[in-house]
Amino acid sequence: MTIFSFIGIEAWSGAAWLGYGLLASLVVVLALSSYRWLLLYLFGGMAYWFTVELIQNILAGRPMLMELSSWHRYIIAMGISWLPLAAWYCIGHYDMMT
Question: What's the pTM value of the predicted model, to 2 decimals?
């Protein structure tokens, strides 16, 4: 039994070990360097995509939207995820529009 038996680490090839090792070392080097702000973009992008996936899965469970393709549900999910940005923009620029 291995520590990572839930992801099947015993079947990884040498290329997978090299790739994941380079990725992990890059994250550690970035965390210790003056460019650690790049990690915010990395983790922010991952959090945003997780949010889009969550919205898409919620939409997939709705009876009316079940018949749409996955691509269409992703487009709707991305549109929903941009609503807070649009609201922030409209609220922030309301005085310029009037």
Answer: 0.65
Number of other CB atoms surrounding residue 59 within 10 Å: 19
Q: Which one, of 76, 84, 83, 81, lies nearest residue 49 by Cα?
A: 81
Cα angle 24, 28, 34; round to 5: 140
Count the alpha carbons within 13 Å of 24 in the hemisphere toward its beta carbon: 6
* Ranges assigned E (strand) in 2-98: none
Summarize pLDDT for 50-91 with one digit per residue, the tens.
999 999 999 888 888 888 888 998 999 999 999 998 988 888
